[in-house]
């Protein structure tokens, strides 16, 4: 600090009196942050609620690459979604559920809840909450994800 700064330091708040000696994280900033230089790209890192093991084949959201399910949790590839083919999974991650409602599907009446990616909010498919026919009870608690909303990720050859 120069002599002028030392003499006037008692008139300024502590974070301004110390000038460059004070860390910007040590005290609150005064005023708005300066704009980032044009050549610096600031991006928000992708953070998901859950990450699946890297050594397993997995399925991810086609829109944001959030992990959705392990291949080991795949039950069937022979399902039909509202927009095309779909897979039935035993469990999924990074997925939010909407309210349950009754729908008449190809296999009868079911109570289902739409599911969406927690990262990008894209509707992916639905969760079977309740099946009203005894032959369909195996679907309860399982998840449908439409193929056009997921990609194969990690370990597929």
Task: Give a description of the structure.
The protein has 157 residues and is mainly β. The protein has a domain at 58-153: Metal Binding Protein, Guanine Nucleotide Exchange Factor, Chain A (Beta Complex), CATH 2.170.150. The chain contains two helices and nine strands, in the order ααβββββββββ. Strand 6 and strand 7 (123-131) form a beta hairpin. One of its GO terms (biological process) is positive regulation of cellular senescence. It comes from Propithecus coquereli. Pfam families: Yippee-Mis18 (PF03226). Residues 57-154 form the Yippee domain.
The CATH class of the domain at 58-153, by name, is Mainly Beta
The overall pLDDT average reads 78
Number of helices: 2
Give the CATH H-level superfamily of the domain at 58-153.
Answer: Peptide methionine sulfoxide reductase
Q: What share of residues is helical?
A: under 10%
Tell me the CATH topology of the domain at 58-153: Metal Binding Protein, Guanine Nucleotide Exchange Factor, Chain A
Strand numbers in spatial order across the main sheet: 3-4-8-7-6-5
The CA-CA distance between the termini, in Å, is 63 Å
Rg for CA atoms? 26 Å
Largest sheet, strands/sense/barrel: 6 strands, antiparallel
**Quaternary organisation of the protein chains:** single chain
Keywords: Metal-binding, Signal, Zinc
GO molecular function: metal ion binding
Signal peptide: 1-17
Protein name: Protein yippee-like
